[in-house]
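Quick one:
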Amino acid sequence: MAPDLTIRVSMQATDPDIADAMKVMKAAFPPQYGEAWSAPQLSGMMSLPGSLLAIARLGDIPVGFALLRSIAGEAELLLLAVHPDHRGCNHGRRLLDRCMNEAEGSGAKAMFLEVRSGNPAIHLYSKAGFFQYNHRPDYYVGSNGERFDALSYKIMLGHD
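Output:
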């Protein structure tokens, strides 16, 4: 029987957590877009207050991760990735839902994210209820000099 997906959330990521996130990052982010972070960048973000790293695993195998920062009543989803071998299994949605719950639990009233135009994850975010509120043309520059638009999304959390 296949192992169930588990999601471990940490506000103080360990070196093995960072290593697991980097395994997924290297496989999930195509190099031509220049979106992948380095391990020092990930560790640096985790040293800031309100940062959270969620690692999704099937047994001992890391299959996805998300990086979230919540501060001053807002949350920003900085990264979300699922290993290409494990896409289409609802792991991304489970990570996103977990991050939304964690953000709401920290007191965030809204959650924001930014994504490159054409990124297949846009469908995931829209299906979860995020709406696009900004469009910045030619914001990102890929490794080959190609330019991509940045799309900003937002969702309101909780029910007043």
